[in-house]
Amino acid sequence: xxxxxxxxxxxxxxxxxxxxxxxxxxxxxxxxxxxxxxxxxxxxxxxxxxxxxxxxxxxxxxxxxxxxxxxxxxxxxxxxxxxxxxxxxxxxxxxxxxxxxxxxxxxx
Length: 108
Fold this sequence. Notes:
The chain is α+β, with helices and mostly antiparallel strands. About 30% of the residues lie in helices and about 30% in strands. Strands 3-2-1-4-5 form a five-stranded mixed beta sheet.
């Protein structure tokens, strides 16, 4: 799986029942050879992908493609990636921690 495939599949992995009543935006900034910015807006539990991102996300994950795909596929622990500096989180850290409930793991 590459970054584009991950984000194309993200809406299908979204768990709206975990986001009931939630209005937040999660953003990803991928920084390496396949760079880009994507956001996922949740408005009252309904979610949609925003290629190119948004101006003021509630939480932003910044990492390289390899690290994020490993996290998305369940091969890398997000907390370990954060603690070792491979994943940076800016904004609402509680929302960042909840993101694993909002999206089912993707498989290669």
